[in-house]
Design a protein that fits this description.
205 residues, mainly alpha, 9 helices, elongated
Amino acid sequence: VMMSIVSRLGTAIIATYGIGIRIIDLIQAFTFGLMRATSIMIGQNVGNEMYARAEKIAYRNILLTFAILSVGAVFLLIFREPIFQTFINDPMVVSEGSVFMSIFVPSIPFFGIFFVGGAVAYGSGHPLAYMVVGIIRLWILRVLLAYTLTFVLGLGSVGVWIAMTISNVGAGILTILWVMQGSWKRRVIEIHAKSNHDKLSSSTN
């Protein structure tokens, strides 16, 4: 859907969007690693009903991700034109890529919060809230807002970049609010180990 919006804006914008997605893919590779590690740790501690420790892990990993991606964002901002030039040397695309990076890059740390929040959701067994935030992020804050800013308000490609930025920042804020709310600190799988052991002992006797 986003590509259908971008494709109406010309070849330079399409190329900028495509390169931007490649850069986002690299960031996602990093956040996926943290997400999986966080999910395992959250699952283990929530499963053992060590909720205070699980909460500490969630906050520390969110802070770590935000800090690392903030440093990365500064790097991307400083070298935004050379980074685009490694993909293509077209002056129009490099110029548009510089605009894209200037608008989008500050949202990258919030993008990381969104992914780590997903690890908390899946690790604790409470994915519904994360799914809702994901739907809001993609279909309302990104697709609907991109169409409105680009064609209704006439902002052109800048409208797409702003919508992508707002979707990440909004999703990050909603995710951290959900983590702080704490409804995920509840084990959803009950293991009646003692009861099963007693039944087995009784049948053996």
